[in-house]
Amino acid sequence: MSTAPALSPSSVKALRNAVIRLAGNSQDGIQSIGGILARLAGRTQQDVMTYMTIPSTISGGPSIFQVHLGSGEVLHPGDDSDVLVAFYQHSYDSHISAVADGGICFYDSGEVTELKHERGIHHIGVPFTSATVEAVGGSARDRGKNIFVLGMLCAVFRLDKDKVAGILARQFGKKDESVLRNAMLAFDAGFAYPVGDITTFHFEEGEHKDEHRISSDGNTVMAMGLIAAGVRYGSAYPITPWSSIMETLRTELPRYGGIYVQAEDELAAVSMTIGAAFAGHLAVTGSAGPGLSLKMEALSYASMAEIPLIVINVQRGGPSTGMPTSIEQSDLMQAIYGSHGDCPRIVLAPQDVEDCFYIALEAGRLAREYSCPVIILSDQALSSRIEAFTEPDLTKHWIEPTLDLSDRGADFKPYPLDAMTRHAPPGTKINGKYPHVTGLEHDEWGHPSGNAKMHQKMTDKRRNKLVDLSKKLPLPEIYGDQEGDLLLISWGSNYGQMKESVNRLRAEGHKVGAAHLRHIHPMPAGLDRLWAGFKKVAVVELNDVGVYGYGQLAMMIRAAYADPKIQSICKTDGLTFRIREIVTGSEKIMRGDA
Amino acid sequence: MSSPTLDTSSATPATALVTPPAEEKLTKKILTADHPTWCPGCGDFAVLAAFYKVLEKLQYPHEKIVCVAGIGCSSRFPYFMNTHGIHFIHGRALPLATGVSLSRPDVHVFVFGGDGDGFSIGGNHLNHAARKNIKLTYVIMDNYVYGLTKKQTSPTSPIGFKSKTDPTGSIDRPINPMKQLLASGATFIARTHAAQVKHMVDTFERAIKHDGFSVVECLSECVMFYEGSFDDSTPRKGGTYEIIDEAQHDVKDDVAAFQLADLPSPGKFGVFYEVQRPTKNALEQKWIDETQAKLGDTPQRELLRKRFETMR
């Protein structure tokens, strides 16, 4: 958490980081200005992480966008905000408690009338609406008040005005000329608005001076990673929060000679994708939890038929339709065990927005190497939040798609017991019998087989692929203390918050470390070496503790290592972890009263 | 022209769109694989024999033939063909075949299945593969009963049919395959009969040569669970087999096709409907070509690097 900027008469104060929360309704365009602030940070060597809540209603409803800008490493979107921008009374009422002591609240003085003067919070009333109408004039009504606020924040934080103008021009320049003109009018009016005698702030120079920094959201970065991994085909069905990946692939893949198909349903989507994989391509399908459930029969097939495949699940709140625009990590067991039968498949989880790129590349590599489905468990927070990171080096991270149609000899077997399956896609000449790809238990040639011994051998083969992988996976590094009171283990988008919690706990004098798992199934072999030197282990995840008191990853690790010192820090309130929630949970476990 | 996924540098002649004549002559002997697991007397044997005959006639390159099926007795078809084959899950053969067809314009995709697979569990996919006009040929072996699971009512079982799930006789109105396919937007729709080998061969050949989604319903008797189902269209059992006279019936006229489809059992056989409409395969390729024309010779890796530039 950043410390609240103390106000003083001095004119400019240097900052290392600040959390700005924009609270309004979803149609006010606060995501849009939040996104611009985040992109700006990426361009100016600041680090950035954003946090967004969106109502799942079609239009309207309260919505926030929180931007954490920092000159150092930004690990989390921020518990409390230093600055609140409240567009309405309801925004003010809901979010004033999230402002740090001594923070600043800008509010629309035409909308917010009842203020709570407490905890040294500085209230600054600005007529966002009427000042915007005045600046833009005429028929625009209050459209553009988000841009007015952007201008105001630019002035307060002394952000690079020219760069903001550049981003605005890119965003609005493609539309009618008057749109950009009105946006610039609103921006200039906000920038010039006299907010009174307050401190302005200046970010210290960031640590990433010489690198190409880019800022983007996890879904976009995942789509870019898939393209770099060599994916050119696939199919999906729209569902929140997955859809933007399929939209990006649909739009981008024709540039690379590929096709992304919008299927009639989730079953068709996974089937078309398996079709493209059978045809010899690296292909991807994806969905959120409900859609993954619908794909389960076909995914069991892909394990049995040994089809390489990437499947992305952008998790959201469940069960059932649940909370489509909220975060949860409750699909872990579904990802590993959701299908009928013993059907081994690989499950990976990216740790932050940047990792969405690299995890997609790894998924492609593993799918090909082990000829099996690879599920990537992303989540709602990663899907939409914007982070700044170093631009991936495509000279190192780029797989050229290939289609292996080389002739196969008479001894070709699609399902050899003593080697990895390497299918011969259609178009391959076979100098013997042609192979059959099948979901029935089969012999090495793909003939259906009800032979009991053969079923055991093939089950062994499919399982041993994952056993082999688990032995090759490196143990995650421990952040913080290498031995001591407590080891935190987490997965997915909790990465930054867990590290920040370790910083906080160590500052309090505890000996705490943290390990983050990107490989959920199989886990790296010998995972218990991680916690050998710790008194307790707490698995931090966003799912329910269930009947037995342990979250889903905690259950997996307990099942694998049967170590009673493994405990859980879980919650399911639809929001990402706050640092203080992990800190409090850790303290309880260390005290022994959890 | 290479398959769209291929980096041009790695394209091989094996993926050329215009396929050269097969090196070895495809014969029934070469095309035969496992011995069919069907019951003696099953109509599907004749369908398999007819399909061998068509392939002998067409002489496509051996490695370019792909047989796809879902689940059911007739869906065992790919195992009996010595060609590339995939036996998928129940009802999803069409979307799987769609994935093959769209991503591999150089291969010939054939889908086989029954009435349960096609009209019941896979019904939604039939509608969408048809409206998208996916380039493939789909043969539905319709026996009016679930055979693999031993005599339950199927979506084409006539009212009154006694099965294990309708012991007093089926009460649900059966679907009319021809009308269903007409409404779905399929561009080639025909009906044939397993006891009419010559008509099957002719119909399959025409379906395969159609540039688009071609579907053939083939009545194929299940001698175990619905014996005598097609006697009224089997001349040697006293039935009538009347082939549509295309001098009288305009195959481009969907209203006339609907009227033909409404005739009482056994109805007529042959081509009900045949029109040309751009395939999804062609339309997607057009989009790719137009998109890539604007990009010039930019290497793919450079395209992605430029995309990152916009995110700086």
3D architecture notes:
The complex is a heterodimer of chains A (594) and B (312). Helix content of chain A is 35%, strand content 22%. Chain A is of the alpha/beta class and 594 residues long. Chain A folds into 4 domains: 12-203, Pyruvate-ferredoxin Oxidoreductase, domain 3 (3-Layer(aba) Sandwich); 215-390, Rossmann fold; 405-472, no CATH class; 479-591, Rossmann fold, CATH 3.40.50. Chain A has a 7-stranded mixed beta sheet with strand order 11-10-12-13-15-14-21, sandwiched between helices. In chain A, strands 3-4-2-5-6-7 form a 6-stranded mixed beta sheet, sandwiched between helices. In chain A, strands 18-20-19-22-23 form a 5-stranded mixed beta sheet, with helices on both faces. In chain A, helix 3 (128-136) packs across helix 6 and helix 15 (495-507) packs across helix 17. The longest helix of chain A is centred in the C-terminal third of the chain and has 21 residues, at 452-472. Chain A is globular and about 85 Å long. By secondary structure, chain B is an alpha/beta fold. In chain B, helix 2 crosses helix 7, helix 4 crosses helix 5 (123-131) and helix 6 (177-184) runs antiparallel to helix 8 (254-261). In chain B, the strands form 2 sheets. A 7-stranded mixed beta sheet of chain B has the order 2-1-3-4-8-7-9, with helices on both faces. In chain B, strands 5-6 form a two-stranded antiparallel sheet. Chain B folds into 2 domains: 14-277, Thiamin diphosphate (ThDP)-binding fold, Pyr/PP domains (Rossmann fold, 3-Layer(aba) Sandwich), CATH 3.40.50; 279-312, no CATH class. The two termini of chain B are 36 Å apart. The interface between A and B is large, with 72 and 62 residues. Strand 17 (436-438) of chain A pairs parallel with strand 2 of chain B, so a sheet runs across the interface.
